[in-house]
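lol forgot to send this yesterday, sorry. C-alpha cells for the thing we talked abt
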C-alpha cells in the first residue's frame, strides 16, 4: 500500500511538471492484488470528436461532394446525364472520372443529372435527388489529398459543437485539430488540411 501511494504521488508530480490538461488514474484490482495505473492528458474526453464519411463522385475531372440538401422538384427528365461506379472506399477520394466512394442500392440508377444550380449535379439516392456541389479551388491542388470526411465535436475555440467537411491525409484528425489549425496564430498548429465547409457555434 505504501508502494502504491508513492507511485501515485510520483505520477501526479510528473503530470504537473509536463503541463497536462487533466490526469485520470484508473486502478484494476484491490490494494492486495495487481494494480494497473493509467495516466492520460484528458484531451479526448475534453474535446470530443466524431467523424463520418462524405459521399463524393468525380465527373469531368472535378470532385462533387454531397451537400446534405436535395431537390424536390418533381418534373424532370428521366434520362441520366452520366453514370458512375464505386471505385474508392468510404473516406477515400476517387481518382478517376465516373468513380465514387459509395454505391447505390439500385445499380440501374448509379448516375447523375446536371443540377439546377450552377456547379452542381444531382444523384438519385433513396427516392430523393441529392445535390452534389463541385469542389474546386484555383489556388490549391486538391488532388494531393486522399480522404474526405465530416468531423464534428467540441473545440477550445467554440461554445457548442463545430462541424467541418475537410480534405486531409490524416484519418485521425479531430475537430479541435482543425479549429486550432484554422484559428491559431502559432505556425506549429497549422495542418495540411483543406476546409470545404464549416459550421461553428
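and heres what i got for the seq, position by position
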Amino acid at each position: 500500500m505504501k508502494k502504491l501511494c508513492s507511485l501515485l504521488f510520483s505520477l501526479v508530480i510528473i503530470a504537473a511538471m509536463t503541463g497536462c490538461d487533466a490526469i485520470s488514474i484508473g486502478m484494476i484490482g484491490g490494494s492486495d492484488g495487481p494494480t494497473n495505473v493509467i495516466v492520460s492528458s484528458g484531451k479526448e474526453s475534453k474535446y470530443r470528436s466524431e467523424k463520418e464519411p462524405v459521399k463524393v463522385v468525380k465527373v469531368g475531372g472535378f470532385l462533387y461532394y454531397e451537400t446534405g440538401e436535395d431537390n424536390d422538384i418533381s418534373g424532370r427528365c428521366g434520362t441520366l446525364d452520366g453514370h458512375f461506379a464505386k471505385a474508392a472506399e468510404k473516406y477515400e477520394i476517387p481518382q478517376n472520372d465516373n468513380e465514387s466512394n459509395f454505391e447505390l442500392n439500385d445499380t440501374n440508377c448509379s448516375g447523375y443529372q446536371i443540377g439546377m444550380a450552377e456547379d452542381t449535379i444531382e444523384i438519385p439516392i433513396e427516392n430523393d435527388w441529392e445535390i452534389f456541389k463541385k469542389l474546386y479551388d484555383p489556388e490549391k491542388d486538391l488532388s494531393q489529398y486522399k480522404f474526405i470526411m465530416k468531423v464534428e465535436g467540441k473545440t477550445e475555440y467554440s461554445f457548442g459543437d463545430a462541424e467541418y467537411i475537410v480534405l486531409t491525409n490524416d484519418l485521425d484528425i479531430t475537430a479541435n485539430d482543425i479549429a486550432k489549425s484554422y484559428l491559431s496564430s502559432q505556425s506549429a498548429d497549422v495542418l495540411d488540411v483543406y476546409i470545404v465547409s464549416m459550421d461553428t457555434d
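Residues 11-44 have pLDDT under 50 and may be disordered. anyway ping me if u want another try
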